[in-house]
Specification:
Elements: H1 6-13, E1 29-32, H2 37-54, E2 58-62, E3 71-77, H3 86-97, H4 103-114, E4 123-128, H5 134-147, E5 151-157, H6 160-171, H7 181-195, E6 208-212, H8 217-229, E7 234-238, H9 250-257, E8 271-275, E9 282-287, E10 293-296, H10 298-316, E11 322-327, H11 332-341, E12 346-349, H12 353-360, E13 365-369, E14 375-379, H13 381-392, H14 396-407, H15 415-429, H16 433-437, E15 445-450, E16 459-461, E17 466-469, H17 473-482, E18 488-493, E19 500-505, H18 509-526, H19 533-537
Parallel strand pairs: 2-4, 4-5, 6-7, 6-8, 11-12, 11-13
Antiparallel strand pairs: 1-3, 2-3, 8-9, 9-10, 13-14, 15-19, 16-17, 18-19
The structure holds 2-acetamido-2-deoxy-6-O-phosphono-alpha-D-glucopyranose and magnesium ion.
Magnesium ion binds near residues 65, 276 and 280.
Length: about 550
């Protein structure tokens, strides 16, 4: 047998403890941490095979991101820093659901299917967030890798974007950057400091922020950055780990509650940056002079940075194609602003980072952002070469573009790198957060959840904007939407929760809530709703 100890170790140390079928989804495997030992062991096994398959190092990140502290999860990172290939998501699901007894057989089947020489060397790079359960789960993953004959490089506690960066740099021989934490901090912070060498203040821009670390690993990463960026940006840090992870704070809290994060003293006029539990998402909060709270989300960030890149690009004279990728959740006002006012083409992708990432690759410079604050910018090789050459030739806009390229972590959404990019753009424009927010006004919007017996009855097309089944539901939605001038609504099955999500937009909040409720009722009626219809009806009464 090729995998001699795999079954014994599983039975003795990491027996399968969950009977129900679980699936490798957009966020990998995620659940209560107590149910994950065997999953992590098995993902260690699978990562080893994937490493042999690709002849490159594979990443294993242990985190449940913005979920409560009692949860945990695991995601695999492919060789170029991307999300795991779709075919391997299927292998992951098969392996995790197999009985302990047949693990060796299932591994062999995967190896046969993929044509893998299992005697080959394998390298797995493991990282984890600050959750108390993460260390134990790390041990399970490491045991998996070693049992399958692979070698482990344990990065310890790190953010999700850093593991993507290190996997990328390790596999490309250091072309993208030095494959160490120090290399990561240096690359980004040097570029940031250089771009504001003339002075950190400019116009209405003040180099000062409040930082909400969500009591997670982002707080630790920020402490490192502070040591590297010095006086270029004055940061006061909160939620550094003294409170509960993601509890009443962090990027997800700010986005879903549209509120100032707990644990950070309210201060008018100073930007507050919130990251999530693994630091791949970012939100800005701001209280303006009149005391009004403003939330600046992924759409606001995307339009800000795409507009700036567009400006630098046209000033540089370089002929490169810039585009923005959003999802159906992007506020309609942001799409209209970026397309009509700034002339940047926009594509819509399905929810989930891999879809946006893929879509962004069609541009020379592809900006992608989800409204929830996950996003980055990707540069094609041709774009990189052209920008660097023009920068060498002292084209000043290209020099700036080249600096910006180093601030950005192209490998995945990176909260702190995104923050430093936003700060760079605000600085260059001499803008306060209020100026930034005034670029366009969000349309009122509302999200609702509907429980149904089987959410897979909802299927969609056109980047989730059109519902295909149940047949007739889209007709109903169209009719409901036509009752509102400039209304928009769509429904989709969640990839991370057992629910159907409803999104609605209209010119006023009252109309928006009405439309959302009507569409939610249509889902309940036509897709096998199991909840209380009256509760849906009285949602915002
Ligand atoms: C996952 C996705 C995120 C998406 C969210 C949608 C990745 C790495 N993460 O967290 O991009 O916004 O799922 O959740 O792809 P939903 O399907 O429950 O709406
Ligand atoms: Mg996250």
């Amino acid at each position: 047998m090729t995998f001699p100890k795999v079954v014994t170790v599983a039975k003795e140390q990491y027996p399968k403890s969950v009977k129900k079928e679980i699936k490798y989804g957009t966020a990998g495997f995620r659940s209560n941490a107590a149910e994950l030992d065997f999953v992590l062991y098995r993902m260690g096994l699978l990562a080893t095979l994937r490493s042999q398959d690709t002849g490159a190092a594979i990443g294993v990140m242990i985190t449940a991101s913005h979920n409560p502290v009692a949860d945990n999860g695991v995601k695999l990172v492919d060789p170029a820093g991307e999300m795991l290939a779709a075919a391997w998501e299927v292998h992951a699901t098969t392996l995790v659901n197999a009985p302990d007894d047949s693990l060796d057989v299932v591994l062999q089947e995967i190896a046969n299917k993929a044509g893998i020489d299992v005697g080959k060397k394998a390298m797995v790079i493991v990282g984890r967030d600050t959750r108390p359960s993460s260390e134990h789960l790390r041990n399970a993953a490491v045991t998996g890798v070693e049992t399958a004959g692979g070698q482990v490089w344990d990065l310890g506690i790190i953010t999700t974007p850093v593991i993507h960066y290190i996997v990328t740099c390790h596999n490309d021989g250091g072309k993208y950057g030095e494959p160490t934490m120090e290399g990561y901090y240096q690359k980004i912070s040097k570029a940031f400091v250089k771009l504001r060498a003339d002075g950190a203040s400019n116009g209405k821009y003040e180099p000062e922020i409040l930082f909400d670390g969500a009591n997670g690993v982002g707080a630790l990463a920020m402490e490192e950055f502070v040591g590297h960026i010095g006086k270029a940006l004055n940061t006061t840090r909160y939620n550094k780990g003294d409170g509960i992870l993601n509890h009443m704070c962090g990027a997800d809290f700010v986005k879903t509650q549209q509120r100032w994060p707990g644990g950070v003293p309210e201060q008018a006029g100073i930007r507050c940056v919130s990251v999530d539990g693994d630091a791949d998402r970012i939100m800005y909060s701001f209280i303006d002079a009149s005391g009004k709270y403003l939330m600046l989300d992924g759409d606001k960030i995307a339009t800000l940075v795409a507009g700036y890149l567009q400006e630098l690009l046209s000033a540089s004279g370089l002929k490169l194609k810039l585009g923005l990728v959003q999802t159906a959740y992007a506020n309609g006002a942001s799409t209209e602003y970026i397309q009509k006012k700034l002339g940047v083409p926009v594509s819509c992708a399905k929810t989930g980072v891999k879809h946006l990432h893929h879509e962004a690759q069609q541009y020379d410079i592809g900006v992608y952002f989800e409204a929830n604050g996950h996003g980055t910018v990707m540069f094609s090789q041709a774009a990189k070469d052209a920008i660097r050459a023009a920068a060498q030739a002292k084209n000043s806009s290209a020099e700036k573009l080249s600096g910006v390229m180093d601030i950005i972590n192209e490998t995945v959404g990176d909260a702190i790198s995104d923050m430093l990019f936003v700060e760079t753009v605000l600085h260059a424009r001499g803008w306060s957060a209020a100026d930034w927010n005034n670029a366009y006004t969000d349309l009122p919007n509302r999200q609702m959840k509907v429980t149904v017996a089987d959410r897979s009855v909802i299927t969609t097309t056109d980047a989730e904007r059109v519902c295909v089944t149940p047949v007739g539901l889209q007709d109903t939605i169209n009719k409901l939407v036509s009752g509102f001038s400039k209304g928009r609504a769509f429904v989709r099955a969640s990839g991370t929760e057992d629910i159907v999500r409803v999104y609605a937009e209209a010119p006023t909040q009252e109309e928006t809530d009405k439309l959302a409720v009507q569409v939610a009722c249509a889902v309940h009626d036509q897709a096998g709703g199991t909840g209380d219809r009256n509760a849906i009806l009285s949602s915002f009464a």
